[in-house]
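Progress note, sequence design subtask.
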């Protein structure tokens, strides 16, 4: 499957940002560090990390951290997100796919051509459309 709406160079830059975002992850309970990097339509990159809580359900995923930072700063239009996750202090050994809640936030703010990149490294990644990861998603157009 090919997704062509961002260049290989942009993908590598975005993945590098997601990997560096992992350095800020606050994950004293799972020790699983996740970084995300969101590319806006204007070419800005907004990073996010997972932020855990002793009340586990309050934990915020890296992807939602990136979206909420971006939206709260006035960004509303996005082209892609890169996600990298794995055991803290180690390079990712598997692709980290976004959880259901994060996919729903992508449904809210990602456009129809929004690209989701699950990366182990800048040269080892998979990419998806939101339609592939969240088929028949529920969106605002359903609400009158
Ligand atoms: N996590 C993310 O940051 N993104 C996801 O899409 C899935 C899970 C985080 C939440 C928690 O801090 C850790 O990974 C283990 O679930």
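Output:
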């Amino acid at each position: 499957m090919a997704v062509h709406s961002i260049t290989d160079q942009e993908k590598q830059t975005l993945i590098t940002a997601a990997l560096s975002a992992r350095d800020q992850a606050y994950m004293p309970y799972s020790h699983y560090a996740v970084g995300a990097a969101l590319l806006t339509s204007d070419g800005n990159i907004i990073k996010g990390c997972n932020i855990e809580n002793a009340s586990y359900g309050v934990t915020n995923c890296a992807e939602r951290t990136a979206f909420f930072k971006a939206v709260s700063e006035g960004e509303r239009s996005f082209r892609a997100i890169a996600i990298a996750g794995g055991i803290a202090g180690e390079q990712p050994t598997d692709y980290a796919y976004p959880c259901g809640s994060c996919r729903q936030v992508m449904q809210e703010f990602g456009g129809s051509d929004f690209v989701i990149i699950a990366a182990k490294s800048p040269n080892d990644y998979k990419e998806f459309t939101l339609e592939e990861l969240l088929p028949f998603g529920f969106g605002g157009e359903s609400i009158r």
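The two ends are 35 Å apart (CA to CA). Work on this subtask will continue into the next period as scheduled.
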